[in-house]
Amino acid sequence: MVSIIIPTYNRASFLREAITSVVMQDIFRRAPGEAYELLVIDDGSADDTRRVVISFGGPVAYHYQPHRGVSAARNLGFRLARGETIAFLDSDDLWHKEKLGVQLSFFKAFPAAMVCTTEEIWLRNGVRLNPKKKHRKPSGWMFDQVLRLCLLSLSSCLFRRRVFEEIGGFDESFPVCEDYEFGIRLALKFPVYLISRPLVVKRGGHPDQLSRQYWGMDRFRVQALEKALSLPLEPWQRKRVEEEILKKCQVLVKGFKKRKNWFEAERYRALIRTCSQPHE
User: Fold this and answer.
1) Under 8 Å between Cβ of 202 and 120
2) How far apart are CA 125 and CA 130, in angstroms?
3) d(CA 201, CA 192)
4) How far is the C-alpha of 244 from the C-alpha of 228, rounded, in Å?
5) CA-to-CA separations, 93 to 73, 156, 186, in angstroms, rounded
C-alpha cells in the first residue's frame, strides 16, 4: 500500500485540486489493484476543509487535530499510515498524473533505494518561475548540499517506511524550516535519488505561506544546524556544519543590527565566536 499524507490548515480553496491530483494518478486508474490511502490531516481549520475532504469518499480519509503546526500534522499522518511507501503533498501543491507511478517503478527497479524525488514546476501567483542555479537538486549523497538551503521538497518525495523508523519524524518545535532540519538528518543517513522529470507543481505567492510569515528564516536554519552538531558526524561533516552556522549567523547579525535589535545581534555574535574556536 502507498500512504499519501496531506497536512492542511485553512486551505479549502487549494485542497480540492490537491486531492484530485492524487486520486487521478495514472497508477491508481490503470491498476485498480494498487492499494493506496490518502490521509488528509486537518490542523485545526475553520473553513470548509472537512466538507471538501469527505466529498471524495473512498480511500480519502479525514482526520482532525487542534492547531499544532505542519510538523505535528505530518507526524500524525505517519502514525496513522499503513503503507510501506509514504508520500507527502502540501495542500497548495499538485502532482502530475504520472508522479507516483514513475516513482514506484523506480523503487521496483532499485529495491535498495529508500528515497526518491522529482523535479518540479514552480508557480508564483500563477506565473511560472525558473529556479536559480543554487536550487538545482543533486542526486545521491547530498549532506554537504542540504546545509546551504532546503533542497528537499516533500511534495516531490517518495519514502520507504524504513526511513522514518530509522531517523524519526518531523521536529514539532520548528514553526518553519522543519523540512530543512529533517533533510539534514535524512541526508546524513540515506542517499536521495532524483528523477529528472518535473512531476510536481509548487504553487507559491499566497499570503498564508509559512515562509512569508516569519522574518529571518536563517534563525531556524541555524537552530537546525546546532541540533545537527549532536548527530554522529564525521569530522568533515562537523566542520561543514560549523562553517554554515558561521555564514548564516553573519547574515543574521547584520539583519538584527539593521533593525537595532542589539540583544539578538549579540546572541549570534556569541555563536560565531563559539564556532570559530579551534577544536582540541
Assistant:
1) yes
2) 14
3) 20
4) 11
5) 16, 10, 22
Contacts (Cβ under 8 Å, ≥6 apart) of 110: 193
Rounded CA separation 267/90 (Å): 34
| Domains delineated in the chain | 2-211 (3.90.550.10), 218-276 (no CATH)
- Using CA of residue 144, residue 149, residue 154, residue 157, what is the dihedral sign? negative
* CA distance linking residue 98 with residue 5, whole number of Å: 18
pLDDT tens-digit readout, 94-129: 999 999 999 999 999 999 999 999 999 998 888 888
Q: Please give the average pLDDT of every successive group of 10 residues along the chain, which has 280 residues.
A: 96 96 91 81 97 94 97 98 97 97 97 97 86 87 94 96 97 95 98 97 76 76 96 96 95 93 92 79
Can you read off the three cell numbers belonging to residue 197? 522529470
Q: What is the CA radius of gyration of the chain?
A: 19
Grid cell, residue 42, equals 486537518
The per-residue pLDDT for 196 is 95
